[in-house]
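S2.1 Query sequence (VWFA domain-containing protein)
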Amino acid sequence: MASEPLATCSRVELDAGTWALRLRLSCEHPARLQRSPTRIHIVLDNSASMRGNTRSECFSELVSLATLPCSLTVFANEATLLGSFATPVEMQKAALPHRDGKTSEAESETHHVLVLLSDGAHNEGPRPSSGVPVLGETLHRDLPNLRLSVVVVGVTGSSDTSMGMLLKRSLETVALDLQPIYFAPDAAKMKEVLGELTETMASLSGSLLRASFPPGIGFVQAGQQGLLSVHYAPVYILLKSNLSDLKAAVGKDPVPEVTFMARPEQYFVVKAEAPWQELCIEGMEVPCVTTSDVELACDALQPLLARARVARVAGEDVATAVQQLGKWVTAIEKCETLRGSEGFCLVGASPQQRLAQFKKVKGLVQSVRELRNRLAELEAFKGSNSAEQAAFLTGKSSKYGAKALLRANAVSFSDLVEDVEKTGAKVRLALREDLRAKLSQLSEPARKSLQTALGEDAARALCHGEVTSATDALLDSDKVAEVLQSLGIGHGRQSYLSLSSSWQHLAEWCSADARSCHSEYELLMFVGILGYPVDVQRRAATQMDPYAMKIRKMHKSLADTASLCCGLRSEQVLVPPEGGKPIEDLLVLVDPDFPKASRLIANSLLLRCYTSVVLCRDLHMYLGNQMRVALHAHALLATAELPGGRKDEIVEELRRLHLGHSYQCGSCGFGPVSHTNCYDLAAHHGEAGEGGGRVNNACPSCGWFSEELEDWDAWDGTVPDSALPAETAQAPITEASIISRLHICYSARKIWGFEERKELCKKMEMREDLTTADGVEHPVKVLLALASTDLPEGCLDPVPIRNLLNEVCARKAHAEMKGGLDASALARRILSITPDSAPECRPLGESEPRLAAVEEECRADYSLDSSFDFGAWVWEEVEPYIAMLSFVDRLQACLTQRGGHGGHGAWESLEQDMEKGPAAYADVVAFLKDSLKDLNTSLGSLGSLGSLGEGLQLQRTLATMVVQALRHDSSQSRRAKDVGGNLEEPLGDVTDGNTLRLLAVRERMDIYQAQVREKILRWSGEGADITYTRATVADLAQFQHLCSSHLHSLPKATFWGLWRAAVADGGRDGEKVLTFLSKANQDFCNKYRHPR
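Output structure tokens follow.
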């Protein structure tokens, strides 16, 4: 067998005369197994501007990475060599000189790695922009064989990184696979940043290599006029051209060879009139093979972009670089467009095939978009401090990239790969256990069928639970799962996208080569699990509160996450079999057919990332299990099949089928009208058709007709009400809907702790508050707990049901108020309350009576506004809750009937039956289907379920629910004072007629108190004058009464009005002044007249 070549070279043509080249070195290549002699020279900025951020001991660990003695140099006004060190301990003992100078440039000649720590501050001498390039030219002229790498460490956010980047750009001859800069925003972060640098440098292996071409081809050193430089990044440009022309074009002469660090892959960009035959690596000729891998081109352009970033921060003009890169990106796009998306198919695709199809269809396009985005950032960048410059250099300056840096607990890609591998090993064992559990429960006829399919000995061993290598191998194959599925054991779930079964997708985890993936999204396309398609409506707050979203619909046809991610990332439109809106998200559930295996995968790190994507459109915003519980809860509510929801689905389906190739009436605008493949509308118009009807090509709405297709406008997507079917009664609940609800509840029990579910059910039983402050993030959480738990007596009584529905209405009112709704104005409109019906304030200057006395005399009458539809306001929000509460009620009745003893343990029994297969719990499905077939989700059902009354009583109750929700929308306004709220007494019962009267009183009292506040404001401006007038005409006894016994408790305006009147009446020695001072405190008396 032929051994793998030590080096291979591939190339692909970018455009005419431009090639991308990739050099691969095998793991056996000598340059990857050996390390060149290394000397590290550390240069520390010890100037005053560093403010104490220089600490040599922080760098000491770098010394251990070198093979030769290392040097430590510090500079302020001048450079000082502190010594040569061979161990970290020696460097830690080095003492830095006293800092009293300013920053100046340090000239140093190093053999290999130069590590610079500085804030980049420049105070005196020539500017670095003029001095450093000259230094670089001198260095390369005098030492042409110098192998020098530059590592820059920036310090403090207000510093300037441009000097470090200029040094790197001018001096470096060998690039290391490191970040352009390691940045520490402050001294506290210095050790952490240097630890990262040390760890990365320690991971570098291999020695330096020289690459060269035959005469006539050279590696180009580009100056400021050109694009590339041999001094940075593992990418170079080769030109086959006249040397004088070349120098004029790019600013520097080409060199015959380049030096680079040996790595598994190395990229070059080559300019040549014709393909060359081979590349010389340290004297070894490596043949160059032409391929059609356009992705290679993107990989080659990425380092060029990094080089341009460094040049931009160094203060150089990068317009030429941006222009050239833009041309090459355009060339790549054209090449990819010609290839197209041929044969995209998810049916039966393996993980490798899904990934390959994605890369073929869209992988490169995503890379091209990333390149264009970075080019745009490059042109727009104007950062002036190290923090902004470092973020720009490392590609972390975008909005979401910067946010990602703040996620302390974000899972790394390597963690995901490792977790997928570990999970795969566990899934193999779990699948065996799940299959053995099913086999142990087979009936005798089923066992005979299994024997026929697998062989008598194998079937007997499996059914008796024997654990041998032979039975394990049989379980690991797909034979047992296929036989069980053919026997109807299990639900036979499969993805409509891949047409693969649940077992097949779970089994893919067992042999997944996760290390062949290069990103989180590739992992998500590689392996997955089945789930229900859901239409998620997110809000900005969803990232912090997973319940701050809504699921509009849950489809019954299952799909798999891997195929969906592959399709979406490839920009394919994936519509569910039943039609409607294309799907974008899946609700992942624990599968009762394979409970242990599916639970392992649902709890994996990769599926946590997927949950984060579903809720936040971000891979790394997973906040914990509450995210999955929120999705389960909202999905359960979405399974309520309501008539209004079907209308939206019809509109979506019409748009999906007709938009873009249907017409609308040229007269009235009715649409859609289908004239597909009909170019002569008059030919068949009016002809008799099958079944006695006639062909009608006229507008179905107004009858307008034109035989010319050009007279019909293209349909704009507007669906008039006349194009929709008439509203019908709610369709009876389907078996698929019941099973999906039970599946959600089953999965919730597997991922959600019993104690938390029990606590929520207890709140219902004890009729406690259900506000956010009480630990209820959303009412759907209570609904899911009720549906997935054996309920104690009283949980579904009318009072707790009313409490839940009132909380739902309060949350709706709160959301509308955040949107700008004036709750007070709406409540007064509903109750027909006007300002003239509220208590009136007394005239300015007269004190108001006690508030309790005013409230006691306040009017409590009201008149409901007939123009406001109370039922519609309430029903819009509570309708799905009514449907699901009816489902929960019937389910609990069924479980009680099955389990006995009040239903305790009945859900656990149903769990076990669901794991056995559909036949084991068919009685539950039949019971629910029969008991819910006549379910009427209407205001009448609301009245009966919550004991809200009928007729006028129901209308009054609904009005009470609306007004109470508007006036008590927050947790604080719905809770009593003893538990941290504002209420003296609990909220009134909405079915009690007196509750609405009390709400009417509150509205009038709010009007009265607003008038009092206005009166107080007027008094602060006019009170002093009014008091002055009264006190001036008052006799001494009356004046004494006006002062009262607590003079300093009077309002400011009253106090100073009395003082002014007293002084004006008899002067400082008058009787009124003496009376006033006798009631004032000592400090006032000392200041204004006499001590007491």
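The CA atoms of residues 756 and 1028 lie 66 Å apart. The first strand starts at residue 7 and ends at 15.
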